[in-house]
Structures are given as C-alpha cells and as structure tokens.
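We emphasize that the prediction below concerns an isolated chain of 160 residues; any contacts that depend on oligomerization or on bound cofactors are therefore not represented. The input was used exactly as deposited, without trimming of termini.
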Amino acid sequence: MENYEKKEWTEYPLDEIDRKIIQFLHDNARISYTDIGKEIGLSRVAVQARISALLENGVIERFTAVINPAKIGIHVSAFFNVDVEPSHLQEISEKLATVDEVTSLYHMTGPSKLHMHAIFPNIQVMESFLVEKLYAMRGVVSVDCQLLMKRYKSRFGMKL
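Result of the prediction step, given as a token string:
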C-alpha cells in the first residue's frame, strides 16, 4: 500500500468585518477598498490589509472574470462522470486538470470516480476531446456524459 500524506487544514477565524468584506467582493470583485471601507466603517488601508490577509491565508483563492461562453462561440457544456482504475487516478486527474476545455474536476465518492465539467464550441470538438484525449488515457474504465440544456443558476465561489 502506498504511503500517503495527511493534509491538515487550519481554519482561518473570520470575524464579522471579514464576512462583510467577502460579501462585498463576492457581489462585485472590482469594488474599491475605499468603497468597502465606507460601507463598513474602515479605512482603505485597513480593508486592504484584511483582504491581503484573506488572500495570504487561502480564504480568498483568486479574483477572476466570469465569461459568458455563448458570447464567445462556446455552445456545448457537458458534465462527465469518469470511472478510473484506482492506480491511475492521480495521473489522470493531473492530465485532465491541464486540459483547457475542462473547467472543473472533482474526485467524488464511489470507486475512483471523477466528476468533470467541460465546454466546447460544438459537438464535433467535444467528440474529438472524448476520442483523442479522454478515451485514450490509460486507466479510464468508462465515461458517462450529460449535456447541459439550460442553466437556471450558477454560483461562482461561495456565499457566507
């Protein structure tokens, strides 16, 4: 049996001010430190210091822009359940994590199951991804695919 490293997670103690700052950033990541400070009664410098601490401690992972895929010619959104031989799970996960089309990848409960979301300009490109990349990976046992028909809600990041 392989040795594994136990990862220890330390929780960062959020106070009410941190929670308010995170909520403002969640609603509008481009809001200025000054505007946040005015809303919660802190100086720009104090807000900046708190956000820096949240970043340094991994509470805030990153800031990003959310792009509407259809507006740039990406019309196929698919969810995949990929069964993987246990001995290949890490290798396949690392390879899939580097594929541009893959937007999210999770190890789920069950026998070496990966859950993945990917986007493609059209169904032909998705088929090419399946045949040339996913099915070609040594250790992939089976793939179940579901196409997104309509999005009712999508949340990026989490709300407190």
